[in-house]
Amino acid sequence: MSLLPWVSEVAIDVGTANVHVAVKDGGVVVREPALVAYRVSNDTPVAFGTEAKQMLEQGVTEVYVVQPLQAGVVADMNAAAVMLRHYLQKALGRRPLFSPTVLTAYPTAATQVSRRALVQALRAAGAGRVIALQKSLATATGAGLAVDAATTAMVIDIGAGTTDAAALSMGMISDGISVPLGGASLDEALVRGIKRQQGIRLSHHAAEEIKLHVGSVDPSLASSPPAGAANMGSFSDKADDIKAFGVQLDEVPDIIHDACMPIAEELSWLIEQLPAKVRSHLGTTGAVMTGGTSQLRGLSSLLGNRTGVPMAVATDPMSCTMLGLQAILNNLHALSLDGRRVSFAALTRS
Ligand SMILES: Nc1ncnc2c1ncn2[C@@H]1O[C@H](COP(=O)(O)OP(=O)(O)OP(=O)(O)O)[C@@H](O)[C@H]1O
Ligand SMILES: [Mg+2]
C-alpha cells in the first residue's frame, strides 16, 4: 500500500526500442515498442508502439514514425512526453492519471543533461514524483544478481541504443559505462556493409530483420532460426521476406562480428580499470548479460574470450531492467534519500 493511497506508483523502463511499465502490486502491464506515428498532414500523433511499428513496416505514407529515444536518452522531448503519457494512461487504465509516483532508470553513466531530460519527459507526461536510478542497479536486481553482497557482481546490458555495464557491490556501483552501441549500431553496420559489399540499400528496419534472422556473430552458428524465433511470427514467412531483399546472407555474420568488436573493447576497458582482486574474482564468477542484443548467438563467447570474464545470458534478458525496477518499486522504502543506494536485502523479484 502506498503512503497516499490515491497516488498510483508506477515503474517504467524507457528503452531506446521498447518501453515496459509495471504498476505497484499489479505486474508488468505494458510492453511496447518505443515508437510514435504522426499524421503527415497535421503532425498529430495517431498511433503508438506495436501499431506504429506496423504502420512503419507496411510503409503507410500518411504517417511518419518517430523513435523518441536514441542511444538510451531522450532525443525528441515532445515525442517522448506524448508516448510516455499514452503508456502511463494505458498502464493506469481506469484509474485517473493523478500525478503517479514514477520510478525509472537512466543509463548508468548518463550526463546530468540527459538524466534531467528523462525526468522532464516523464513530468510532461503527467508524472508527479519521479525517482530515477542508475540502470545497472535495476538491471542487476532484475537479473537476480546479489548486488548487495560484499563481493563484486557484473551486469552487461546490451539493448538497442546502449551498452550499459557496471561492477556492483554492497548495493552500489563501483564502476560503470554507458556507450552508444547496441542493436541499432549493428543494424547500422549491416546497412553500410551490405551497401558496400553488395550494392543493396537496406532500411534500418530491413537490416534489423536480417540480423534477427541470421542472429549470429559466427557463420557456423548462422543457419538455424534465432532464439525466440517462434515469437517473431512465422519464421519461414520472415525467411521469404528476407529473400526478397536479395541480400547474400553468408556475409552477414562477419559484418555483425566486426560491429560487435567496439562493444568488446569498451567492456575490456571497463574490466581493466577494476582492481586486480575484483578482476580475478569476476574471472571465476563471470558476468551476466541482459538486453535484447545479448541474445545474438555467439556474442557471449566472443565477449567472454575478449575480456577474460565468462558471460552468461540472463533468463528473459529483455525484461531484467523492468523486473528490477518492479522489485525496487515494491520496496521503495529500501531506497535511501539520495536515490542511489539501495538496500537489496528486502528486495525480491516478483
Ligand atoms: N534474438 C535476438 N538476437 C539479436 N538481437 C536481438 C534479438 N532480439 C532482440 N534483439 C535486439 O535487441 C534490441 C532491443 O533490446 P532491448 O529491448 O533490450 O532494448 P532497449 O531496452 O529498448 O534499449 P536500450 O536499453 O539500449 O535503451 C533491438 O536492437 C533488437 O534488434
Ligand atoms: Mg534497455
Describe the structure in your own words.
It is a single chain. α4 crosses α11 (320-329) and α5 packs across α6 (204-214). This protein has helices spanning 49-58, 77-92, 112-124, 135-142, 183-198, 204-214, 235-245, 252-273, 276-285, 299-307, 320-329, and strands spanning 9-14, 18-23, 27-33, 36-39, 45-48, 63-66, 69-70, 73-74, 101-106, 130-134, 153-158, 163-169, 172-179, 287-290, 311-313. It has a five-stranded mixed β-sheet with strand order 3-2-1-9-10, sandwiched between helices. Strands 13-12-11-14-15 form a five-stranded mixed β-sheet, with helices on both faces. The protein has three domains: 9-139 and 319-346, Nucleotidyltransferase, domain 5, CATH 3.30.420; 146-181 and 260-315, ATPase, nucleotide binding domain (Nucleotidyltransferase, domain 5); 185-255, no CATH class. With 350 residues, it is α/β, with parallel strands linked by helices. It contains eleven helices and 15 strands. Bound molecules: adenosine-5'-triphosphate (ATP) and magnesium ion (MG). Adenosine-5'-triphosphate (ATP) binds at residues 15-18, 72, 159-162, 182-184, 208, 212, 215, 226-228, 291-293, 295-296, 318.
Rg from C-alpha positions?
20 Å
Largest sheet: 5 strands, mixed
Average pLDDT works out at 89
Quickly give the CATH architecture of the largest domain. Answer: 2-Layer Sandwich
Low-pLDDT runs of 5+ residues are 228-235, 343-350
Bound molecules: adenosine-5'-triphosphate, magnesium ion
From the helix content, strand content and strand pairing, which structural class follows?
alpha/beta
Distance linking N and C termini: 16 Å
Shape: flat
- Helix fraction bin: 25-40%
Number of strands: 15
Question: H/E order of the elements?
Answer: EEEEEHEEEHEHEHEEEHHHHHEHEH
Oligomer: single chain
- The CATH topology assignment of the largest domain is Nucleotidyltransferase, domain 5
The domain count comes to: 3
> Order of strands side by side in the largest beta sheet?
3-2-1-9-10
Q: How large is the count of helical segments?
A: 11
